[in-house]
Specification:
Helix content: over 70%
Structural class: mainly alpha
Shape: rod-shaped
Oligomer: single chain
Order of helices and strands: H
Strand content: under 5%
Length: 75
C-alpha cells in the first residue's frame, strides 16, 4: 500500500513538473514577444521624434518666410 501511495505522489509530481515546463516555455515566448513589442515602440517613438523635429524646422522656415513677406496673422 505504501508503494501505491509513493507511486501516486510521484505521478502527481511528474504531472506538476510537466505543467511547469509548459508554463516556463510559455513565459519565455511571452518575454520574447514583449521584447519585440518594446523594440517596435521605441522605433515608433524615434520616428515621431524625428517628425516633430522636421515640423519644428518647417515652422521656423514658415515664420521666416512670413516675416520676409511682411505677412501678419489674421487673428
Amino acid at each position: 500500500m505504501t508503494e501505491n501511495v509513493e507511486n501516486l505522489i510521484l505521478e502527481r509530481l511528474r504531472r506538476i513538473d510537466d505543467r511547469l515546463s509548459n508554463i516556463e516555455g510559455g513565459v519565455k515566448d511571452v518575454k520574447l514577444r514583449m521584447t519585440a513589442v518594446e523594440e517596435h515602440l521605441l522605433s515608433i517613438q524615434t520616428s515621431i521624434f524625428g517628425l516633430n523635429q522636421r515640423m519644428d524646422r518647417f515652422d521656423e522656415r514658415l515664420s521666416r518666410v512670413e516675416s520676409r513677406l511682411d505677412l501678419k496673422d489674421a487673428s
